[in-house]
Amino acid sequence: MRLHHATWPEVEAYLQRSKGVVIPTGSTEQHGPTGLIGTDSITAETIAHAMAERCGALVGPTLTLSQAQFNLGFPGTISLRPTTLIQVIIDYVQSLACHGFEHFYFLNGHGGNISPAHCAFQELYADQSLSRQGGAAIQCRLRSWWDFAEVNEIRQRLYGAAEGMHATPSELAIARHVLPAVSRADDLPAPPLLSADFIKRHGGDNHEHAAAHRAQFPDGRVGSHSGLGLAEHGAALVNAAAEAAARDYAAFLAGRES
Ligand code: NI
After folding, report:
1. Distance in Å, CA 157 to ligand 1 centroid
2. Which of 40, 63, 131, 251 could tie 109 with a disulfide, CB 3.0–4.6 Å?
């Protein structure tokens, strides 16, 4: 069920059987010369809806704006400051908590969301810890779709090191699968591979300022051979991610780690 397509009595009825909600988190930022600017939002939303079909979860509106300051050197990118995104997440969660929601599962499609989301979760927990009022506890979990073992296996098998970090063939494959009519042809050559040290230091989109980022990655791809991401790969990636996320969501609702 999609919150956008529901009525308030339907949400009230849903709350009788579940206190959980799935929130897709994406971005609005460049994805290389052939990737759509909405790629991260498209992937997160697609997987969240496929996951919800398997487990009956309510899916909230996609957070399409993110922390992406490092990509502001590329036209079309829109970035929230990290502090703004933290506040948006807190207000989103607390609004739904007013109605009785307790379990908030963020299905993530953008590395730059990870640190602000975890800060927001700590702010929400701190409110509860400091209030001494007890009451229903808010629980939050964020999972990035590429982190599930089943998805990683596909990424490694299809792309290996050419997966890179941004405008990845896997995310472009999903967008090409979902939106074939607006997909672009891609015969770009492979960009330089990233070192293991670079990947370690810059995980979660821990990049520096926008001018430096564009100078270092002039076409916007960060070590990713985008043209390898074929539409036919997209269906398998969505399927694997949705299956794994549905299992993880069930564990989350049951209070298990995974
Ligand atoms: Ni992306």
Report:
1. 20
2. 40
**97 CA to centre of ligand 1 in angstroms:** 29
pLDDT per residue as tens digits for the range 6-54 = 999 999 999 999 999 999 999 999 999 999 999 999 999 999 999 999 9
Q: What is the mean pLDDT of residues 57-79?
A: 98
Task: Give the pair of three-digit tokens for residue 165.
Answer: 């970090």
Find the CATH number of the domain harbouring 230.
3.40.50.10310
Say if residue 147 is exposed, middle or buried (CB neighbours under 10 Å; 0-12, 13-18, 19+). middle
Considering the domain boundaries, does residue 80 fall inside one? Answer: yes
Give the strand pairing for 139-144 and 58-59: unpaired
Ligand 1 centroid – CA 110 distance (Å): 5
CA of 42 relative to ligand 1 center, distance in Å: 9
Whole-prediction pTM: 0.96
In the reported structure, the alpha carbon of residue 205 is separated from the centroid of ligand 1 by a whole-number distance in angstroms of 10
pLDDT score recorded for residue 135: 64
